[in-house]
Amino acid sequence: MSNKSIFAVLILILAAGGIYYFSQDKIDVAVKGTGECTIDARVSIVGNEFPAIQTVGAGAKECTGAEVKTNLTADHQKINVAGMSNDPAEYTSAIVANTSIVALLNDDLIRPLDDLVKKHGTKLKKNQLITINGKVMAVAFMANAQHLVYRKDVLDKLNISVPKTYEEMLEAAKKIRESGLAKNPIGGAYKAGWNLAQEFNNMFIGYGGKHFKGNSAEPNVNSDAGIKALMMMKSLSDFMNPDFLTHDSNATNAEFRAGNVILMNMWGSRAATLTDADGVSEAVKNGMDIAGPMTVGSGSIPASTLFWDGWTVAKNISDAEAESTFIALMNAIDPSIIKDENIRKQAVWLLDGYTPTDAARGVFAAAEMKTTPYPMLPYAGLMHSAIGAELADFMQGKENAEKTLSDIEDAYRAAAKEKGFL
Amino acid sequence: MKHKTFFWFILPTFLAMLIFIFLPLISIFLQSIHTPHENVLMTVENCDPFGCKKVTSIDHDAINDLKKTEPLGKFVGLDIYFDRGHLAIENVKMLWKKDNNFFQFIKALSDLPFYKAIFFTLTFTFTVTPIMLVLGFLIALSVNTISKKLRGIIIFFSLLPMIVTPLIGSIILFWMIDSRGIIGNLIQWLLSDPDLSLKASTSLTWIMLIVYGVWHAIPFSFIVFYAGLQTVPKDQLESAKIDGANKFEEVIYIIIPHLMPLITFVALMQLMDNFRVFEPIVGFSAEAHATSLSWIIFNDLGGETRQLSAAATSSILTIIGVIILLSPVLLRTWKDFKFKK
Question: Which of B49, B159, B165 has its CB closest to that of A140?
Fold first, then answer.
């Protein structure tokens, strides 16, 4: 090969690297809006990327007078703690849920908002204020839960009533498979890791399980409820696509859109826009319907968990920045935003004057059925990741339920000891 | 080279190594022998849109002073190295006593996260490295024999697997081998087994990751060997031909000995790279079937838990693993060096 072609190859490699590097650059440029909101110090927001949060991010950017930056990404939990630990912090606000606020609370990275609520937050409803030990630590703007999403046309055709329990779901799945309308009619976000652990939590709570002994950090999953939950998950997985351990909620929704999945437990925040994609057949579009969360083992509490999403303000920033951040985010969740029909259907908003859309029925039913909120405990995240890591062996049939549950407790204990909880 | 010239020549590299590699390593080591302080917990009332209830929370006022005076945390020595997430000394002892059968012992061992990762990492390293060495060499030999006009374009296409970002490459393949994807479907059709799923079986997942690893690494060995082939002395080959050597003998007795330093170099680089296998596991969503040390570090750092000490410990163990892996080659180089002196 001549020197020239070696040189050309090198240039190509460099160019490819360069293109890759710059395509990674996600910093947004502040957009100067015409809203009535004016601020005098920088605002920088990190958060998840689903539609409702995009709306909140855009609302904050309407403010003028100082720079407003947002970084909305599915990886927000990997960067928010690091981005708020320094003094001054890179992010002046993190949009969190009741799961992810715990990491910020554990490291003491967010500030009490009582003064700011008094000054600028008079529009807020009392149930939007997340208080811990009497101090407002976050402002919630939406609720979320997993519930049943199903194909009404298929169930009607086979004369199956809408399942209210997981046992009924199994029976329905059996009938659908026998009818030949779908080979693997059940869908579920069973991807090893966070998703799989979340499904276990749902089922475990549905069977009346408690993750921890009393008020302590001692694990309590190796119990009767734990074994029952695992057995039910295993039975459900028999009716799933064999690749289920690689399917997160995006992949599960894709299976539903393709018409392969008839029944699934899915997030409310994704229900409204589920079938808004190219190539979705009319049968799926018209046939999709939602219902409340299911119960299991003749329990009364649904096998699901309630979530809220809200925003926080960083501790390690100046008071001026904190005030600007608060004002910008108040502007973002102004009750007037839900006058727009497209925004109203994005989520179950906790804002004044919100009336539920059709897509919100599932989450509302979850709240009415007294679904358990996800526990806001300092060590809940450690338990969640221990479950996510150890459960895959059971789902693959490599070990029995008792062994898996004791593995979960061992893995959790090792992590909790390291983090100083046990 | 004079010592003084050598010193000035190496100084910038040395400084960069010191600042960007050596100092962070020390910090990682320090982190791995400390854990966060024991948390002081308190019961507080927590109100949210769904009502109020008593929950446990961390009492920051109680531990903030301690955190300020000892920011590294509590010294725990090698405790984390020996805990269940890493070397799991206690569990291994117990299993050793319980299982008389060696295979059962290995099987039980692979249930512990660290050993599970080590088994996959070693299998991956010791299959991918030799296969890519052999295939890369064969491709280099064949490209070397084709017409010079075609070589440029063929070399470019052979390099593509390396140019494609590993994560992108593995995600593309991930969808192709899906049971509804083009390769997944083809395999089902070839084996007439409509339920076959590459992603649902541990052994097939391992094979898939190894095939991907080979595919991704071949261009590197190919391009190095191809460059090496250009330097094989023509007169040696000619005299071998005169002595009646066939093509195969030429390769065995002349080309391979000539390329030996390069083969050692590629093997060394690839052993190190493959031992740190990471992207394919994420790209193929293979964590249910295969994990590696790098994946454990990533997993410990991400999400809601951020186990810094655990991640630091895994990092140190990875470095120790790389050193053990490379020690035979390093020893040989050292001996050669002393011999030459």
Answer: B49
